[in-house]
């Protein structure tokens, strides 16, 4: 006995492996892609033969848990005294899962495309109040920015240099991008991350999806899924610039073996780093589901309200250079020297989603959704010396004098309805073959109208005088088919999509009369690829995809048939290598994105006098993306990624407004220049150390190289490179009846780097010389957010 007692510490300190195979209990067939985890210490997925291996396991008693879609999770208690084999035979679940809802538009583990998966716990570590784009900042090729400077309010994300109008965003497979402007406004759904289960980010064209084509990337979000245990959770955060976040989440768990109800209520307030850039945000999320043996029905009802004082014009460059990085000139009233207090954006968006999954046969499943979104809101602003004739108002006679201009307050309104249906059938006649047929029909109706709320001088107009109104109607239909077929070690992939768009809008005809117009577009987007599985841990892949993208509302409304731009076309070539091990995963992906007729601003005016985007015949993005994660020791891990790219426009013509002649003229023609807002290097790093159980110290870094504000590669119209670092501290424990108490601290820009992450430029010609009017979005110096989370 004394010998055994002496031996136990040696056994506990030794490192062993746990390996085995996961199979279907009925058929004995291997289950590739099953998740195997051991005591929350490490996890892995089974390979093509259903095999797994967990290495560097210390001796001791553990619970090994295996889970796989459509099967009952199976835990096993094991005592590790040496390397051992533990196999699992899983039973089909009595309840249908809902993963099929989004699987049709997602890349699988061996898909020949570049993607990143984020789990709920990955998001929650940083979810202390900043908007969703900031939670995606550490993913490859991503650059995020905040108008207010501290991550709350209007935020944005670019992936491979493509902004939100070219990133396809779906929520449970339902398009989130605005149908007309094509932007994705996460501010309309504050604290959405608290109701998200997982996210997949695809770079490049990616797989077929619903909504506008992915012209640089796609973000596929899945909200709350089944939680079997009842819970209540309170999340409260507070930090710099008056930032406060309060979230209450509740869930019933599985009731009667079939029903669940989950709910969330949130508010986020912040003064913002920039002067007069406050945000007052509210949201709720309610979800009820029924789980049957072969079907799942889920109803999601959620809403967001935002009021923000606008900082979307940025800070003038000369103000930044003088040291005032927070100056916001928007809303300035010349005559009184004060600022208009209600220079705000106000918007409410309500979402309704009915999701249905059905296992028709063991080999055939169906997923469908009905959805409706109602949005309503306005932007209010003060205008100095506004011309009355520009607002359809007859100049008033005051004291014998004709009043042609006046200060006024106007509201720019938008009321829109978006509704439709999405669906997909998934057929798997055999283990090596997967067929998917899906599509959607969506309709958007947007009412745009503008009112005058107040005038400084009497103009004899009625209250809420409406001076303009127009309607946009967009009908979007798509149909796609997808096949995954495995032959030995080769996985073949094919994806074909047809998309039809009918868009009606108020625009100019050939005689420059403003009348209702309509355009119809038809797109065919094919995708093919292959993955070669070298062995259980290594694979290589290559793919080719075509994407087409329609012009946005402004392109159509502010042009006539003679000057309307063409649709954009992208041919995307991708190739890469992946390695997956127990303590090390890595990948390298090369891409070449060849654009035809990419739309860019030139500075010129079209035949109706509006600033236009024009089609550039040839442009491209090419580069390489690297990402990896390594567990150095049990307590220490390092994740990093880096993107190196060349982003070029060929034969770009720049037009500038000449103040002296009141004309817009061709100023210069360039052979090859950098695409605006497309840094050549983007790199991220996160070093995570766990000194004791349930604790973390993370050091997070981000580098972004120079970004040009236009397509001329002019350094005086660019953003300097920046390197910023954050520190995240976290610790969780349980006490009394509280299942989990989580305390965390996020210190952003810990070295107080002065930098700008976004901007705009408006150069013109004055006295024969180019004068730059640059506006920068200055980001906050060192700032913090602290959080306390209680889960019952």
TrEMBL record:
Compartments where located: Cell outer membrane
Keyword Plastid attributed: no
Identification of the protein by name: TonB-dependent receptor
Principal cellular location given in the protein's record: membrane
Keywords of this entry: Cell outer membrane, Ion transport, Iron, Iron transport, Membrane, Receptor, Signal, TonB box, Transmembrane, Transmembrane beta strand, Transport
Family classification: Belongs to the TonB-dependent receptor family.
Occurrences of domain TonB-dependent receptor-like beta-barrel (ranges): 299-750
GO function term, MF aspect, one: siderophore uptake transmembrane transporter activity
Pfam families: CarbopepD_reg_2, Plug, TonB_dep_Rec_b-barrel
Membrane-protein topology: Multi-pass membrane protein
Domain TonB-dependent receptor plug: 110-217
GO cellular component labels: cell outer membrane
Stored InterPro entries: Beta-barrel_TonB (IPR000531), Beta-barrel_TonB_sf (IPR036942), CarboxyPept-like_regulatory (IPR008969), Plug_dom (IPR012910), Plug_dom_sf (IPR037066), TonB-dep_rcpt-like (IPR039426)
